[in-house]
Amino acid sequence: MIRTVLYFICSAAAAAFLLLSCAKEEKELTVADQEAAIESYINQNFSQYNIVRRGGSNRIIVDTTVVGATDSLEYGDSLYFYYAGYTFTSSPSSLFSTNNEYLATESGFSLSDQDFSIKKVHFTPGAMISGLENGLYGVKDGEHCVILFSAKYGFYDDYVYNIPKLSALAFEIWVEDVVKNNR
What we know:
alpha+beta; 3 helices; 7-stranded antiparallel sheet; globular
């Protein structure tokens, strides 16, 4: 009887271990597929643009409206910007948040409970998800960019707001101002 119980416990533990291993491997494969899709999207659509890669993030510099802007964002600085956040499959798809009223209206995004004021962030390590933090590092005054990253650098296995678990993300950013910490 004791041998049967021990056998059952060991078998159940082994099965649980296998299920957890498979789930972890499946998540890693999902992230790898997302990173490949991001790379493919960039190569197909933005090969002529300047791409900044940092810590799993890919920042596509679409436009720099302030020619010769010298203030680039570093830790301790303040950043003023507008943004639009999208889930990413093979391209940016579902808008999940924005503070750009024009874009929200044009996209048919729900305008209730939205704050359309300029976003101000004191840029410090760990203040936001790592994909966005790594993508924003180094942005300049007047820059318009798109930041893409896999779920590994986003919310990973957490369901946040209206963003499904294991979602790759894309943020379109319009930088209004970078205020250096020494001003």
